[in-house]
Automatic annotation (TrEMBL):
This is nitric oxide dioxygenase. GO terms for biological process: cellular response to nitrosative stress; nitric oxide catabolic process; response to toxic substance. It holds the Pfam family FAD_binding_6. Its EC number is 1.14.12.17. It catalyses: 2 nitric oxide + NADPH + 2 O2 = 2 nitrate + NADP(+) + H(+); 2 nitric oxide + NADH + 2 O2 = 2 nitrate + NAD(+) + H(+). In the C-terminal section; belongs to the flavoprotein pyridine nucleotide cytochrome reductase family. Belongs to the globin family. Gene3D superfamilies: Globins (1.10.490.10), Translation factors (2.40.30.10). GO terms for molecular function: FAD binding; heme binding; metal ion binding; nitric oxide dioxygenase NAD(P)H activity; oxygen binding; oxygen carrier activity. It comes from the Eukaryota. The keyword NADP applies. InterPro entries: Cbr1-like_FAD-bd_dom, FAD-bd_FR_type, Globin, Globin-like_sf, Globin/Proto, Riboflavin_synthase-like_b-brl. The keyword Signal does not apply. Keywords: Heme, Iron, Metal-binding, NAD, NADP, Oxygen transport, Transport.
Amino acid sequence: PLSMSETPSYVQIVKDTAHVVAPKANDITAVFYPKMLTNNPEVFKYFNKTNQRSGRQPTALAAAVVAYAQNIDNLGALTDAVTLMAHKHCALGIQAEDYGVVHKNLMEAVAEVLGLDGNGDVAKGWSEAVLALAGVLINAEKELYASAEARRGGWRGKRMFEVDEVVNEARDVVSVYLKPQDGKDTPEFTPGQYITLVENPSKDVLFAPRHYTISCRPSDAKDRLRITVKLLRGPTSSVEDGIMSSFVNKLKAGNVVALHPPFGVASIPYAPPPAGEDGGAVVFLTAGIGITTSVALAGLEIESGRRKAIFVHGDRSFESHPLAKEIAATGCPCLFAYSAADGAAAATGLPATVTVEAGARLT
């Protein structure tokens, strides 16, 4: 948990000015990202341009700034958020020195939007607060990097994997099986974690890696990992398809790609039931390619027998439903709901544990 053994001087400054900064947080981050990417284009490799264009990245940072300000004297409330952030940063390969770049440009954006004197007490207080949070993240990420390296089959940085097999799972969806090129162990991972594909299929030298959920159970990953990826098609013929998803969907056996280690915090809480009672059930409610995380998480429930797994999945049709037959074969109760009127036409030969609905309203 995060803690503060003594109260630094900046804490009171942040508390006294949080009500001024919070309403301007989105303005600050909207200035910050273009400023940083202009001043330090080398960090663009960490940022998904789609998230930048949509405003998702600046909005997420603004929310983080506000949460930090509101909990500046109760950092324990931010433990989960910091853990999630640290996993994402490690998956991207962010290093301690990158925080200096963030700090410099963020403080310039704060001064610009709020009209602050960079040498005034308020600016200095926020500067110290940002550096303190950077220190928390740097320490958390140092531990995560070491932990990822220490796991069975673990490593730090890039590691080359060979495509062992590519399977067409559904319309525009493939599963890619990856084995370590060095012949050593596949990495240990926690169900729900993802690996990061560090490839640049675009002509842009500053292209962010992409994260893909490991879509198999750990017990099925002794020799190779599996990711299951949907081709992100452009909304119109004039808009290109997703660059990385197109790259993955064109991979062939024998191709070699670079990966970062598994990271991520997706999990399902579990508490042993009272004596004489069963563990109940876990319902996995998914849609589209979002089904991938549930495959590994449900495998934990199925193999341990601690709780019943129930699948409820929505999609356009059986043909577009990833991993449908694999999930049906678990014998777990399933409801597959398809929005197309004829969406269930191809859903044949499924076990009696599967209920299929077509023409469903998926809202």
